[in-house]
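Lab notes, practical 5.
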Amino acid sequence: MKKIILALMAIVALGACSGGEKDLKYRGLSMALPFQTFCDSLTARGFAVDSAKTDSAFTRVVMANPNENFRLMLAQKDGQLLALQENYKISTNDSTRQLWQQMRDDFEKELGTWPNMPKHGDDHKVAKFETEGGFITLTLENTYTPTLQVLYEKK
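Output from the prediction step:
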């Protein structure tokens, strides 16, 4: 009987320990990983560092994958990832509006929450989602050059 009670207490303690702070995830990768490990994981997924756009101190790193229609910009400090931004390469305003809406709907389903919408016009929209580990901000700016960005920021 004591062993059963002890086992139940161990399970409860394990559950309490695992219920800590949730990490912000980027496409399944925890943003709490050390910066170099995070970059290595992206490299394994087909991304490569764009040395022409990466600063010499390696605090801001730009990565690209020829199979994706976006570039990544990663910011780090003291070996920890602070923020990651996807910058999409899209040529028409209609395609950016459609992709922005699709991504917004996908984040709503995935996170189970509605975004804060500080801007909601036809050509400039911002949707900011808050998670336990950070913020995800979708920004659409349709001016002369359509711009779509997704920013992941750790708390």
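Observations recorded by the TA: The longest helix spans residues 93-111. The beta strands are 25-26, 29-30, 48-49, 60-64, 70-77, 80-88, 116-120, 124-130, 134-142, 146-154.
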